[in-house]
Amino acid sequence: MSRWVGDNDKSSISAVDQLSECFEDLLKKGEDLSDITFVVDNKEFYLHRCVLASRSSYFRALLFGGMRESQEDKVELRDTTDAAFSKLIFFIYTGRIELQLLDKDLVLDILRLAHRYGLEQLVSLLSKFLNSTLRLRDVCKIFNHAIMFQLDDLVQSTSDFMDRHATEILESEELLHLSDDALIKLISRNSFCASELVIFRAVSAWCEYHSVTGSDAEPILECVRLPLIGMKELLHEVRPMGIASPDSIMDAISLKVESRDMELPHRGVIFPDRNMAVGTEGAEVIDGEFIQFLLDGNSTDYNNDKGFSRHIIGNSESGEPKAIVISLAQPTILNHLKLLLWDKDDRAYSYYIEVSVDGKDYLKVIDYANYFCRSWQNLYFPQRVVRFIRIVGTANTANNVFHLVALEAYFRENVPEFDQKGIIKPAKNVACVREGATVIEGVSRTRDTLISGQLGEYDWEQGYTCHQLGVGAIVVQLAQPYLLGSMRLLLWDCDDRQYTFDIYVSTDRKTWQLVVKKEQLCRSWQYMEFPARPVVFFQVVGTHNTANEVFHAVHFESPAQVGPEETEARWRPSPSQFENPNQEVEENTNSEETEDETLSNPEPT
Fold first, then answer.
1. Domain edges within the chain
2. CATH number of the structural domain 279-424
3. Of 39, 59, 122, 342, which cross-links 114 as Cys (Cβ 3.0–4.6 Å)?
4. What does the alpha-carbon distance between residue 110 and residue 153 come to, in Å, rounded to a whole number?
5. CATH code for 155-259?
């Protein structure tokens, strides 16, 4: 079929389908026009040197590379089947191949030939087809081929499939047909999650099937995590089988006795970018008050009476800290948690988070006990196998209760840089409303104007935040601590005035560190760097204004989203014809009473 293909400026004709049909017809003509014959399984294929060479580097070297076959009219190919070769040749000539009704063994034979003959396009297409049609009965064979031909995408997809069906794979006879490399790669995965005793039994059956014993079995047995097997099973089942050495069994027992449970090499399921802390995934809250709200998926409908879980801050009678505890349905590999702290007023919370596999031995992964936090918390830690999540509130600036509105638990492929306490070093601006930051000191017509990101919307009357020189400051609170070392500040620049100012940082709003001291008069955009450190609060203190006794700032961000050169290029020219903005702070803002009304909200119980 021919068709027109075009756009506004040019047109062309396409007859690709007819071309494919012509080459199919050429293939069907048999000996007519053929100049080379291939013999596969005693079946002759009448082909054309130029077609094969143009489509495959293997055939180009074979037929035109000075090899013996380049001088012959008939070439015999061994180690293949006529069925697979026939499908391969049809693809070479027509660019088409029908796979849906083919047996998987035949598809794998075609894949093997495509790889051998350097048909990368066909290898890619076959890999995608196999990936889309994975089944328990053939996934092990596909996994073998994916590893053999180093098809990384197919290796990953088959591995993920077997992770999700680990127990069925271990109980299937198909496991016996894995190569030793494939078996090692499979059971070495932290996400291949099943009973370790079941894994040991399957490995033992594989070794027996392949007559692998002694030192030959050691590389495979090293991938079995014997410390995860119960002591009774180690002594009464594993040891009598004789496949695991006495030393390896003693080492496993020693590790079980001397190590914390969280130090053992646990396995867990993995579901990238899927929230595992929801009721539909089998998660539940097992400790805390008002537990029905935390995992209900509703992070918008909450107030001072409902929509949150809580615990009293302090220790229980047993001496254990009171906490909110979530139990997941099964051991799960996680590296990311999202928490929503109750945020209907200016209060801040401190807390830490521990995780556990057995519900007894907990490991701290996030420690924000010495930081003030608010609203949404984005938390990252090195990936771990987790069954239980314990959130321990340590402080509330309003009362003695820790309130948690929502919790989500994920595994993320891409994670930001963070330190041992889980404090993120962000690349994007975190001093903004969309990241949960807020302005807690300073005067403006609209709260959070300074960090709203509306850079073009300021004039003499609106769009800036200010404070009286010598009285107070402008204070920005971030949602959580971040490792920061740069920032940008846009000073009000609608006339020629200039400012000087200082900037301090803090994690608790009590102890402040001076990081910037601008003693030379400056105006418009300011780029500033300081040694990176954990920051929760920024305090901007104006020290001088050449026009009046008020310090005005339009925009603040951290970390700085552009460098000093681009910041300088964005300076606004000095419009000397402009009049000064209103002299008094009160004329640029609502009254104190109105401001208090705006910032106050009911307190949760």
1. 18-133, 155-259, 279-424, 433-599
2. 2.60.120.260
3. 122
4. 18
5. 1.25.40
Q: For residue 26, how many other CB atoms are within 10 A of its CB?
A: 17
Rounded CA separation 431/424 (Å): 13
Query: For the segment 422-470, what is each residue's pLDDT rounded down to a tens digit?
Result: 899 999 999 999 999 999 999 999 899 999 988 778 899 899 999 999 9
User: 455-489 burial, b for 16+ CB within 10 Å, e for fewer?
Assistant: eeebebeebbbbbebeebbbbbbbbbbbbbbbbbb
Of the candidates 469, 541, 545, the residue with the CA atom closest to the CA atom of residue 502: 541
Alpha helix (H) residue ranges in 188-300: 196-209, 218-221, 231-233, 239-241, 246-258
Chunked into runs of 10 residues, the chain (605 residues) has average pLDDT values of 51 73 74 84 89 89 82 86 92 89 94 94 95 95 96 96 96 95 97 96 95 91 95 93 90 93 96 96 96 91 93 90 96 98 94 97 96 96 97 96 97 94 94 96 93 85 94 96 97 95 96 96 96 97 96 97 78 52 43 36 42
Class of domain 433-599 (CATH, top level):
mainly beta
List of residues 6+ apart from 588 with CB closer than 8 A: 443, 444, 445, 461, 462, 464, 466, 550, 581, 582
With tokens 């769009």, the residue in question is 463
Please state the pTM of the whole predicted model.
Answer: 0.85
Give yes or no on whether 155-259 and 279-424 have one common fold. Answer: no
Helix H or strand E encompassing 26 = helix 16-28
